[in-house]
């Protein structure tokens, strides 16, 4: 059985923990819990007749007071860059984090997740900004940890990208 490490990175309160909970356990909680350090979960997926154990590292969110420990990223097969669509500054943080992650572990597959698509009327990120990111040939997918929209598709897509490497 293959095991692949995937890190969840992004600013604080973008929904990283909720996305992992939705994917692994099909649950969503309205209660906000700050991740301290790293939380590790596992989910087995099937891809082209192969069983893959996805080891999901939910890294604490980056803010002005704490920087993501880049050592947590070592050994990653991929990462998910999580942005909160209702907070434009989380996009700027994600763009900065992406280059730092790439400097640390090199070019591995990643997907930018625009989370909280159930709240699009409150979004601060517009289509022009999303299109600019897609122009970089990045995969950008909209998700909602609350409703589950797009969550399984992101993890399936990242598993495919890992297996294509």
From TrEMBL:
Tree of life domain: Bacteria
PROSITE patterns in the record: RAB (PS51419), RAS (PS51421)
Keyword Amino-acid biosynthesis part of the UniProt annotation: no
Keywords for this protein: GTP-binding, Nucleotide-binding
Pfam families assigned to the protein according to its UniProt record, in alphabetical order: Ras (PF00071)
KW DNA damage (keyword) present: no
Transmembrane segments: none
PANTHER family: PTHR47978
Descriptive protein name: GTP-binding protein
Phylogenetic classification of the source organism: Bacteria, Bacillati, Cyanobacteriota, Cyanophyceae, Nostocales
């Amino acid at each position: 059985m293959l095991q692949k490490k995937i890190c969840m990175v992004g600013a604080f309160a973008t929904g990283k923990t909720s996305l992992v909970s939705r994917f692994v356990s099909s649950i969503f909680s309205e209660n906000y819990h700050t991740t301290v350090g790293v939380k590790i979960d596992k989910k087995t997926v099937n891809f082209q007749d192969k069983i893959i154990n996805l080891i999901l590292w939910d890294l604490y969110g980056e803010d002005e007071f704490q920087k993501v420990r880049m050592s947590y990223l070592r050994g990653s097969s991929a990462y998910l860059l999580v942005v909160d669509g209702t907070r434009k500054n989380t996009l700027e943080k994600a763009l900065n984090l992406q280059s730092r992650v790439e400097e640390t572990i090199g070019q591995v597959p990643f997907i930018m997740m625009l989370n909280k698509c159930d709240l699009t009327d409150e979004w601060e990120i517009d289509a022009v900004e999303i299109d600019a990111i897609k122009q970089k040939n990045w995969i950008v997918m909209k998700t909602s940890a609350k409703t589950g929209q797009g969550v399984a598709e992101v993890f399936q897509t990242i598993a495919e990208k890992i297996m294509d490497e």
